[in-house]
Design a protein that fits this description.
Four copies of one chain form a homotetramer.
Chain A (H helix, E strand, L loop, with lengths): L1 E8 L16 H15 L4 H6 L3 E2 L2 E8 L8 E8 L6 E9 L5 E13 L5 E2 L3 H15 L1
Antiparallel strand pairs in A: 1-4, 2-6, 3-6, 4-5, 5-6, 6-7
């Protein structure tokens, strides 16, 4: 298992007239969680696309909305990979408000696509090498 | 069952550098589907909030991304209520491209909240009255 | 002069907690205005990019916010080219609400860039040919 | 004059298929600049709305797009108040990329509205008191 926490503050333009963070904007926060998880591993999703020619389209998304998030809240986005990626990778996300209450939980499953051929490929070594130690430890 | 089709064209600002409609923007399309389903019934979500003091926060969202949608695609959003709403209502969505291929399918479950008290309430009569005939027919 | 009117309905996710269409989302409406102006001329911006290898990055934007737009308002976006494009093109936009009141006015200036070379180029003949009759008439 | 620098990283969902930060999303970055300038003064825009019942609708926006911003760029947003606010306040924004090159410059003018009466009011003392020392120094 590998988990990483990052933060994002709710922008005015991300709220709706209900005064809540709009439900569609959580997907952006999940993206921030994934991208910063990659960075925490010493790699970037940007380099994955540009240098390694792998892009990661989203296959599925699920979210539960537990409590509203409000304008200017500094949210904590906890992103976890629970299982070694194979053909796809699933990121689990939990978002907490400043009172450490869970406001949203969900997951995103993504594929790996070779941008040169347009074909799906297995999780690339560049990614697996960065995280495998976190999963080896568990199986000991 | 009650189902309604509406349309939305993919905006440049809704694409991402992969050249796809960004996965987070499908939630906006689901919203358009729900809102136009309400309008097709002779009511509006706006009036529900303003006149009937009912708001509908989202409880959960799930989506499968089957094919990409591209810039300027004129998408068909099919929104269906499969089951008479009670404490909550679930909208099922299917999005088709101009070739009538399914690109995305999913569902959104929403609650009903009295904006004066902030408490959840059952599906309001104003809404149930508009759709009940579609469900009575089926049970005959 | 060439002018075209199109329509867009304000989405819930485009409002903010002030209950207004968020100021940053007007740029999307300006985009819709430009794109539908192109379509009204018998061409598409999509084809300009894909077939003619011309992209149009924005050089400048200015907007005045006259009245708020609200959720579910069906807005009219009037887009006008006042002057024959040369090195750049300026689109003027006026947005009206359902009471035909002006809510926003502004303009966007865009360049033409050859996507193969990355260099700016003059307005392409494919575009000029479509609009020149509208400007010839005026100079008579 | 009072100036404050803050940072924001370009999200995937904020890019468009040109591979650039979409032009409409700069308004969100300007908002981040304003909000963090307020926070740097020891106040928050959130409290201005909630506790002091002042909201600040945007009157006008202008932007020049000098260079593109790309996915994952860590941008610096420099926000400056050049002139003591009176009936309105103008924020000047400059956005720099990681190479310290200017990518965008512009300004936003906002009004002050009493949320109880819906009427415009002059810049509130809570705000003026926080910044006046920065302007007194200059006039010495």
């Amino acid at each position: 298992m590998y988990s990483f926490d990052t933060h994002a503050r709710v922008r005015y333009g991300e709220t709706d007239q209900m005064g809540y963070l709009y439900y569609g904007n959580y997907a952006l926060y999940y993206e921030v969680g994934r991208v910063e998880l990659f960075r925490s591993l010493g790699m970037t999703y940007k380099a994955l696309e540009e240098e390694h020619h792998i892009m990661m389209p989203v296959l599925s998304l699920q979210q539960r909305f537990v409590r509203p998030a409000f304008y200017d809240d500094l949210l904590t986005i906890r992103t976890t990979i629970r299982k070694m990626p194979e053909k796809t990778v699933t990121f689990h996300h939990e978002i907490f408000n400043e009172q450490k209450k869970l406001i949203n939980g969900g997951s995103v499953r993504l594929a790996f696509v070779d941008t040169d051929t347009g074909k799906t490929v297995p999780a690339p070594p560049i990614f697996l090498d960065k995280i495998k130690s976190w999963f080896e430890e568990e199986s000991k």
